């Protein structure tokens, strides 16, 4: 009996698998690159992320264009390729445009940090929420459209006028027969509907949590003050609530304010300098934070190292203070390596 006809268009799961394999390949490359260039990356710190972003742009953009015949290494392994809707290969600009959507989704936090560092006026809760909604909108456009579109085209494919097919199996007539316009329209409607539902639900939750908005604004102001008055970078500030149940089943609640800043390695290794900067943070919290009396602890976790996006090396040190600024605990540094 004649075997089942193999599908031309590549679906969600196989494309996800190729992305995972490509991420592993890039991670290994980043790890090998970091060995001889560790001292350089330490100087870059977390700004080294843009080294990895550039590498992924070049890797994906070049290989998935006409230069690489639409195939990254993972796509070559699994015999699939990115092509234009007429079966030709993407030009380099179109390939870069296609990948820029994916890069924005997966590097969104660091891109936002870079934008707010370059343009401080962007550092507001409202603009950050708008940016987050936009990234989620793109994420839904990649995932939902891939599932429901008749040609499995995500928003990045629609922008670049591309599709992903099995190697050397492109058939214009077959593609035209699969390209059901009503199904494509339905996929776009589902994407739009999911985005609207998300916005409505988020707005509802924000309204319900409206009482927490002053706290969020205060934490944002506190973060800005710490950044302006210390040598720390890429700071996050959070107010945390913790529930505990002891061995007898009795519940208790503690609350704390946590600060997680980055410090370049040569400053991190200078213990006297580092403790002076940490003391500044504690003083700022004690003087400026209106809810300090409600906190049981002040937790500060200082990190150093580098992050080049495709590989990272971190050392962290955690200190705990009481709400009067007395040091309670200092945990030894631990190393975190990832690819």
Task: Please characterize this protein's 3D structure.
- The protein is 53% helix and 20% strand.
- The protein is built from 13 helices and 7 strands.
- The strands form 2 sheets. It has a 5-stranded mixed beta sheet with strand order 3-4-5-6-7. Strands 1-2 form a two-stranded antiparallel sheet.
- Strand 6 and strand 7 form a beta hairpin.
- Helix 7 runs antiparallel to helix 10 and helix 11 runs antiparallel to helix 13.
Keywords summarizing the entry:
2 domains; GMP Synthetase, Chain A, domain 3; alpha+beta; 13 helices; globular; 20% strand; 7 strands
Protein topology:
Layout: H1 12-34, H2 38-44, H3 49-63, H4 73-77, E1 80-84, H5 92-106, H6 108-118, H7 125-148, H8 155-160, E2 162-166, H9 172-178, H10 181-208, H11 213-229, E3 233-245, E4 251-262, H12 265-268, H13 271-288, E5 297-307, E6 312-321, E7 327-338
Parallel strand pairs: 4-5
Antiparallel strand pairs: 1-2, 3-4, 5-6, 6-7
Helical residues, percent: 40-55%
Total strand segments: 7
List segments where confidence is low: pLDDT < 50 over at least 5 consecutive residues.
Answer: none
User: What is the ordering of alpha helices and beta strands?
Assistant: HHHHEHHHHEHHHEEHHEEE
Mean pLDDT: 88
The fraction of residues in strands falls at 15-25%
Distance between the termini: 47 Å
What overall form do the CA principal axes indicate? globular
Pairing-aware structural class of the strands and helices?
A: alpha+beta
Number of helices: 13
| Integer-rounded radius of gyration | 24 Å
User: What is the total domain count?
Assistant: 2
Q: How are strands sequenced across the largest beta sheet?
A: 3-4-5-6-7
């Amino acid at each position: 009996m004649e075997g089942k006809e193999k599908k031309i268009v590549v679906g969600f799961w196989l494309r996800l698998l190729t992305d995972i394999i490509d991420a592993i390949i890039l991670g290994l490359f980043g790890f090998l690159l970091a060995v001889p260039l560790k001292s350089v990356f330490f100087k870059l710190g977390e700004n080294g992320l843009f080294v990895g972003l550039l590498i992924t742009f070049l890797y994906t953009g070049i290989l998935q264009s006409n230069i690489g015949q639409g195939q990254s290494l993972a796509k070559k392994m699994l015999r699939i390729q990115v092509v234009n809707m007429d079966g030709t290969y993407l030009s380099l600009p179109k390939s870069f445009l296609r990948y820029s959507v994916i890069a924005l989704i997966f590097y969104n936090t660091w891109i936002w940090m870079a934008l707010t560092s370059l343009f401080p006026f962007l550092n507001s809760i409202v603009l950050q929420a708008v940016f987050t909604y936009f990234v989620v909108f793109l994420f839904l456009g990649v995932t939902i459209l891939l599932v429901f579109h008749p040609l499995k085209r995500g928003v990045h494919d629609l922008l670049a006028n591309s599709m992903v097919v099995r190697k050397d199996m492109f058939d214009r007539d077959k593609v035209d027969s699969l390209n059901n316009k009503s199904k494509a329209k339905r996929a776009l409607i589902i994407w739009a509907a999911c985005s609207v539902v998300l916005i409505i639900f988020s707005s509802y939750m924000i309204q319900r949590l409206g009482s927490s908005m002053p706290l969020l604004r205060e934490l944002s102001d506190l973060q800005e003050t710490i950044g302006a008055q210390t040598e720390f970078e890429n700071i996050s500030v959070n107010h945390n609530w913790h529930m505990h149940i002891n061995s007898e089943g009795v519940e208790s609640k503690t609350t704390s304010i946590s600060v997680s800043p980055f410090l370049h390695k040569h400053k991190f290794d200078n213990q006297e300098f580092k403790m002076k900067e940490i003391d500044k943070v504690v003083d700022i919290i004690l003087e400026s934070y209106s809810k300090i009396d409600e906190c049981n602890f002040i937790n500060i976790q200082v990190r150093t190292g580098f992050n080049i996006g495709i590989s990272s090396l971190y050392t962290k040190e955690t200190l705990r203070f009481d709400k009067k600024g007395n040091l309670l605990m200092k945990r030894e540094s631990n190393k975190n390596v990832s690819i």
